[in-house]
Each structure stands twice: as C-alpha cells, then as structure tokens.
Amino acid sequence: MIVIVRVNKNHLFLKTIPAPDVQCPLCKAKGQMEMSFYQLQLEAGWVRDTKKITASVCCKNCHQDVPVVRWDKELTAFYNAEKKQITVKTSFKAGKIGKILIWLNIIFFGAIFLFLAGLFIYHRIGPEQTAKNGISREEQVRQSEQFAGSPQTGDLVLVYLFDDHKQALFKITVIDAATNVVKAIASDKSIDVPANASEVPMADVDFKPGNETSFSMMDYKNLRFTAPNNKHLGNVQMIYRK
Fold first, then answer.
1. What Rg do the C-alpha atoms of the chain give, in angstroms?
2. pLDDT of 160-186, one tens digit each?
3. Which of 5, 47, 87, 214 has the fewest CB atoms within 10 Å, counting from its CB?
C-alpha cells in the first residue's frame, strides 16, 4: 500500500536587507530596493527544510514587487552575493499524516510478508499431510516405486494417459515374466489421485472385460506405461496394493 500525496512548497522567511546601489528595473529609482530571502520547505506527509534559498524584491519608491523575469544583472549579482552569506539548517521529519501513512505501509507490507511466509511454511516445512491410514503422500510415492519393482496381480495402477489427457485406473490381472508383459483391465471410472488405498475403487464391476490392455514390465518398473510395441502411453502416478 503506497499512497502518493501532493507536495506543497512553503517559503520560510529568513531576512530582508536593503540593496542601496541597485536601480529598480521598473521605475529606475536607485537606493529604494529591498530584497527578502526565504528558505524552501517541502511538505506532504512529511516536512523537509531544504538548502534552496529564494528571494523577492520590492521597490519602496514605486511600491511594486519586481518579478524574477525583470531582474537585471545588478539584481542577480546582488542576490547571488548575499545568498552565499546565508546559512540555513536542513531537516526532515514526518508529520502526522506521514506517520499514519508509514504505519499503514508497514501493516500492509507486513501482512503480505506474513501471508507469503505462511504459504512457504505450509508447503515447504510444515507437517506433511497424511492420509487416513497415517501414510503421507510422499510415503505413498515411495511405496509405489517399491510396488513397481515387484508387481503383483491385483495391484491398482493409476496412470496419466497422454492421448486422452486424463488419469485412468488399471488392475493388474496377469504378470508374464517370460515375455516381460503385464496385463491389466482399465476401470471405466475417472478418478483423481486418492488419498489412500481404501479410497480406490476395486470392485470387479469397476473393471469390465473388454478394457484389457498390456504393457512392458521393464518400463513399468521405471513408472512408465509403455505398450508392447514400445509406444509410450503415459506415466504411472501411483500404485496401490491392498
């Protein structure tokens, strides 16, 4: 939360001195000029006294202020000479509005930091979410790698199919080590990655004849779902064993 406020320019009076040897550019009177000096102050939610010095000129004869655009060389030289003799103190401090804005920004960015830190802790170093049986998702992945190394009939294999762009569940029915082929029946149900094995559909009615398929046992051990003709059909997401 960053709030932009308007910056006001204030001119703090320093002193007024006569300019006796300078002629008025307006009425041409000499010895009637007075020059007043000011320190520039910037004010928004904060107050800053700057080093910049400005001046105004008044003629006591014609009672007119001489604008800067009408200053001649004599006036400009007088201004530059006298300005060097003036020492100003600079300062910076927050005003009431500035303090409020500072605290609002601290609260706003602090809330964002805490939110992002919470997300980091939750996703990185927080306690692992566990399934109902107490096994975390990471542990399920490790178990799947072990199950893939020694497949058994009845194993349920969740596969992401490239061509269909969806996940499908297969039930292993035959393991033929001689031909390096695993046979399975696909479920006709579309499912997401279940939290644990108890949530995986395993009724025989879910795996209907006609949905049989075969894939390479060697690639299966590397969590690759490959047809006997070596076509890579998808990747194994999870393996469940009951």
1. 42
2. 888 878 888 888 989 988 888 999 888
3. 87
